[in-house]
Amino acid sequence: MRTFVSAVAVLIGLAMAAVAVPAMWVDRNIVQEDGFVALTAPLGKDPAFQKRLATAAVNSIGFGDQQLPDALANVVKPILEDAAQSMTSMPGYSDAWAETLRRSHRLSFADPRTLPADVDGATSLTLDVAPLVGLVVKRVSESSPMPLKAPETVRIGIGQSNQRQLIERVSAYAPMGSAVAVGSAIAFVLAFVAARRKWTVLAGTGLGALVLAAVWKFGADAVGQAVLGTRSGNDVAETFKSEFVAASLAGFGPWIVVALVAGAFLLVAGIVLRVVSSRRPAPNTGP
Description:
This protein is mostly helical and 287 residues long. It has 2 domains: 2-29 and 168-279, no CATH class; 47-161, no CATH class. 70% of the residues lie in helices and 3% in strands. The protein has 10 helices and 2 strands. The chain has helices at residues 2-31, 33-40, 47-60, 70-85, 93-109, 130-141, 164-173, 177-194, 198-228, 235-279, and strands at residues 125-128, 155-158.
């Protein structure tokens, strides 16, 4: 009976861990705003993304309530384009990009009922690049013959229809990952306490961790391919999506490595414990 209870507890612990680890990663790095900003901050330095983002920024800049003559507009427009192409070298670019990510996260993970009327509630992710546009406008206005007005919002939709439901589910269930992880740990402790042969629990848990690491690896790659398979028709959106998937896979990679190391350690520990216990002399029960 103890062996059965121990085996069931190990299986339950592994099943809970299989869900808990990805959920915890998603909660910390995607659902939580600070984690999302830290994960996606390097995307703003990608040359291809910067070029497309600069083009989108220039196209969104208006001249306020003033109408510029064609000749003057033809002079200002190249200045805007040159400034936009060098956004990453401007003072304050890092802060502007971080604010862009924070605004975008709030739009994407907010309750659809609280979104502005002009935001598509069915889009899974919305970039608001207004802080970057403001950075360019500020630079150009310093040398422009006429002040330019930066728009308050510059939104770029990423994703396809009805993906908002997926965001809502992730936001609801991902924070539960920590609680599930605690349940998984309790199951493993119960398995170890109940087992007659402790080494079988260590070895079985280690082997299970190695299997889970492989499952997480293949699962993460499959999810990444599925996301890349969706098309929005927007160059900025496609570049952001591609870089975001790459950053997510790279960010989840260390968690998989930890599972591999822990699994290998437990498996070896179980085998060593089995060898040591088998070499112990049998207790002398007397005549």
